[in-house]
Amino acid sequence: MASALLAGTLVVAVVLLASTGSNGRHRPAVSAGAAATPGPPKVTSRNSAHGGSRSLRSRIRQPAGSIESRRVRKLISLGRAIYCAGTRGNEVALTFDDGPGPYTRLVINKLRKHGVHATFFIVGRNIPLVPGAVRQERAQGAVGDHTFTHPVLTTLAKAAAEREIAATRTALKRSSGGPVFLFRPPYGARSASIDSIVRANGMLDILWNVDSADSLGANYAQIERNVIGGLRAGSIILMHENHGQTVRALPNIFAALKRRHLRAVSVPKLLTDDPPSLAQVRAGGSGCRIHARPSAGGH
């Protein structure tokens, strides 16, 4: 009888060891190999993923500017896209799409050196490409969901679009160490159906009113002109962290911010400190002073 009990105990121990990593924690649902998969992993429970953000918030100290404030929650409840903030302060938001990638660490280092904060919209399948980068990006401002494989969401069936969004939100919460409540659709492509998915996942759709045109092939001097020309209180600037020309343009952009007495902050901080009016939000892109078309090259 004792030998049978001992054998049973050994079997249970082997099963438990196989289901955990070397540190005793359960392995994540999305492995490093996810970057090579053709689509997002299956998300079994949207509600449990959303609830996890609340428990994480209570356990993890949030970086400055990355907290889902009361004003941000109010904007989420409206279910509309945000193109810019108000114009009463001295803050702007620099945003970088499509990472992590080969220039990610260089971008982070430049931001740190100049004391500049930013927001990074992450492609889910890219998360394993630069280990630890997403957590560093979040510490430098905030991170947001940019889908898992970067498709044109409006061409997908609703269920497929939801998988793209929900899978990245789950992976990004795990890799960044905090809640995810910002979203940006690839190419700026959205519809009422996409908006409803974003809102159901408890996120705020962030577009932009200044396009650097780096994804359209602009060189560093053109990127500088496009961004600096749109620097004014409340602006949300679109850039990409996987373009060397963008990295080259950053020092002159930082210098222009200093000359104009503007501060680059995360999107959540910008919307908390100087939220857009209800009239601005309802007007969409026309409620902001657009510098280049908001859907010209968004990735």
Order of helices and strands: HHHEHEHEHEHEEHEHEHH
Number of strands: 8
Point out poorly predicted stretches. Answer: 1-37, 44-60
- Please, how many domains? 1
What radius of gyration results from the CA coordinates? 20 Å
Largest sheet: 6 strands, parallel
Strand content: 5-15%
- Helix fraction, binned, reads 40-55%
Average predicted local confidence, pLDDT = 83
CATH class: Alpha Beta
Tell me the name of the CATH homologous superfamily: Glycoside hydrolase/deacetylase
Tally of DSSP helical segments: 11
- Global shape: globular
CATH topology: TIM Barrel
Multimer state:
single chain
Corresponding CATH architecture? Alpha-Beta Barrel
In whole angstroms, the N-to-C terminal distance is 65 Å
Structural class, by secondary structure, is alpha/beta
Commentary on this structure:
It is globular, with a radius of gyration of 20 Å. The longest helix has 19 residues, at 158-176. By secondary structure, the chain is α/β, with parallel strands linked by helices. Strands 1, 2, 3, 6, 7 and 8 form a 6-stranded parallel β-sheet that branches. It has one domain: Glycoside hydrolase/deacetylase (TIM Barrel). Mean pLDDT is 83; it is low at 1-37 and 44-60. It has 11 helices and 8 strands. The chain starts with a helix and ends in a 16-residue tail after the last helix.
Write a compact overview of the structure shown.
This protein has 299 residues and is an alpha/beta fold.
List keywords for this structure.
disordered N terminus; 11 helices; 6-stranded parallel β-sheet; single chain; 299 residues; 11% strand; TIM Barrel; two-stranded parallel ribbon; alpha/beta; globular
